[in-house]
Write a structure and sequence with these properties.
- By secondary structure, the chain is mostly beta strands.
- Helices cover 12% and strands 40% of the residues.
- Strands 1, 2, 3, 4 and 5 form a 5-stranded antiparallel beta sheet that branches.
- A hairpin with a 5-residue loop joins β2 and β3.
- The radius of gyration is 15 Å and the shape is elongated.
Length: 117
């Protein structure tokens, strides 16, 4: 899940559709909860339908970090924070992150979700 420079996307009234069953777990944080982070499973690939700043419909697919960021921001529009999706017992302040060393790398899940419902 490498990072790439992505151009600015202005998306209005987005609809996000998960593509496939593969999820990736990675540590997330947010300025809504400063100084803390947790491991959050997110879909590896998504499709976005929205409008641009001129009201023109747009559709695109995103994977990796771009997909993760879009899902994180889309959750805000739904009133959801990353702590609502985090894996149990991974919420930590910046001093406690080391307590979860086995989860510091991305973990891919193919099909079976790591989420405990």
């Amino acid at each position: 899940m490498g990072m790439q420079i992505e151009p600015l996307h202005i998306i209005i009234n987005p609809k996000v559709t998960v593509l496939g069953k593969k999820e990736v777990v990675h540590r997330e944080s947010c300025l809504s909860i400063p100084g803390y982070s947790a491991h959050v499973p997110r879909a590896l690939a998504i499709e976005v339908s929205a409008f641009n700043q001129e009201g023109v419909p747009l559709n695109f697919q995103a994977t990796g970090w771009t997909a993760r960021i879009i899902q994180h921001e889309f959750d805000h529009l739904q009133g959801i924070l990353y702590i609502d999706r985090m894996l149990p017992n991974t919420f930590a302040d910046e001093k406690e992150r080391w307590k979860h060393p086995l989860l510091e790398e991305d973990i891919d899940y193919d099909g079976e979700s790591p989420r405990k419902t």
